[in-house]
Design goal:
Elements lengths: L50 E4 L7 E5 L4 E4 L8 E5 L4 E7 L5 E4 L10 E4 L5 E4 L7 E4 L6 E4 L5 E4 L3 E3 L9 E3 L3 E7 L9 E5 L4 E4 L12
Parallel strand pairs: 10-16
Antiparallel strand pairs: 1-9, 2-5, 2-8, 3-4, 5-6, 6-7, 10-13, 11-12, 11-14, 14-15
C-alpha cells in the first residue's frame, strides 16, 4: 500500500541527491487543509541484478563522502534503479567498482545496511571522492525495468522533487508517466495553495497508481 501523509508543508528535510535533475516544489499560496486516506496500490517486488566484473590490475582504495548533503544509494549505476539506502551528510564508504563512465561507484557497504552493496553517483554537488576513479574495476549491470506513475483521478497532479506533472485519466494514455524509482510528494494542481496530500513510493518494473485527488475523491484506474 502507498504511504499517506497528513496535510503539511513540503518536507523541510533534505531529499537525497543522485542527479541534478530535481526542480523546486510547486509555488504555494495560502494553505488549504486536506485530510483523507489514499487507496493507491503498489507492488514491492524488484528485479534481480546480474553483474560481470572487469578487474583492473592497478585498483586502489577509493572513498566517497556525502559532503554537505545526503546521497541516494541505488541498486545499480543509474537513477532508473531502486534506491536501497542513503549516505547522510558526513557519512562515507569505500568504493569497490565503477560503471563504464566512471560517474557511478559501487560501495562495499554503507552505514544503514552493513554488508550490503549499492551504487552512488560520484558527480553530484554533495559527492566528495578520494582516489583515482579510473583505477576501479568496471562492473556491468543489467538495465533496470522502467517504473511508472499513473494518475487515476481527474485532477492534474505534480510530483516533488521530480518537478513532473502527471495529466488526469481523461487524457489517457498521457496519465501514465515513466519516472525514476524513489519517494515522491504529490500535489493537486487544481487546488491553489494546495499542500502535499500523499507520499508515494515508486519501484522498478511497477506502476504506482494514485487513486485519490487533493479533495479526497476516490477513483478507479481505467
Amino acid at each position: 500500500m502507498l504511504a499517506c501523509n497528513l496535510p503539511g508543508n513540503t518536507p523541510a528535510a533534505q531529499h537525497p541527491v543522485d542527479v541534478e535533475l530535481t526542480q523546486p516544489a510547486p509555488i504555494l499560496g495560502p494553505a488549504t487543509a486536506i485530510v483523507f486516506t489514499s487507496t493507491a496500490i503498489l507492488a514491492t517486488s524488484a528485479p534481480a541484478e546480474t553483474a560481470t566484473l572487469a578487474v583492473s590490475p592497478t585498483a586502489s582504495v577509493m572513498t566517497i563522502i556525502a559532503n554537505g548533503g545526503n546521497l541516494n544509494v541505488r541498486r545499480g549505476p543509474g537513477i532508473g534503479y531502486n534506491p536501497v539506502s542513503g549516505l547522510l551528510k558526513g557519512e562515507s564508504s569505500t568504493a569497490i567498482a565503477r560503471d563504464e563512465t566512471g560517474e557511478w561507484l559501487k560501495l562495499a557497504s554503507f552505514p544503514k545496511l552493513p554488508g550490503k552493496t549499492g551504487w552512488v553517483n560520484a558527480k553530484t554537488k554533495y559527492s566528495l571522492v578520494k582516489g583515482d576513479v579510473r583505477s576501479m574495476p568496471v562492473e556491468k549491470v543489467d538495465p533496470p525495468k522502467p517504473a511508472y506513475v499513473m494518475n487515476c483521478t481527474f485532477h492534474p497532479l505534480d510530483l516533488f522533487p521530480a518537478g513532473v506533472s502527471v495529466p488526469p485519466q481523461n487524457e489517457k494514455p498521457k496519465n501514465k508517466v515513466e519516472i525514476s524509482p524513489g519517494e515522491y510528494e504529490v500535489f493537486d494542481s487544481t487546488i491553489y495553495g494546495g499542500k502535499s496530500f500523499v507520499s508515494i513510493t515508486v519501484l522498478e518494473g511497477e506502476i504506482a497508481r494514485i487513486k485519490t485527488d487533493g479533495l479526497g475523491n476516490n477513483y478507479s484506474c481505467l
